[in-house]
Amino acid sequence: MSPSYGRWGTALGYADVKTTTYMEGVSGIVLIGGWVIGDYFAWLAGIPRALRKRSEEIDAVTIPSFLGWGIPGGRIVVIIAGFICE
Question: 2 φ, ψ to 5°?
């Protein structure tokens, strides 16, 4: 099962984007626009369903374990991605 961040996790994510927009100005607005458009097209393409299905197939619970699965040196990828995602 994948983790669910719920309403509070989503709200905190958007609050961070609002802070970025306030601090960065116009470039922050462009960031939000790109983020929303990208999420919309990913949703239309069915990427969330495909990602969930594939992660369940390989039993990957975290993003680092998903990225490092099935490639040579995958353990190093998992470690580096773990530090980045932390």
Answer: -90, 150
**Report field, pTM of the whole predicted structure over 0.70:** no
Report the distance separating Cα 20 and Cα 27, nearest Å. 9
What is the b/e burial string over 27-58, where b = at least 16 CB atoms within 10 angstroms of the residue's CB?
ebeeeeeeeeeeeeeeeeeeeeeeeeeebeee
Q: Which amino acid, residue 82?
A: G
Can you read off the two tokens belonging to residue 56?
A: 């369940």
Which residue type occupies 57?
E
User: pLDDT-based confidence at 13, cuts 50/70/90?
Assistant: low
Q: Give the C-alpha separation, 76 to 82, whole Å.
A: 10
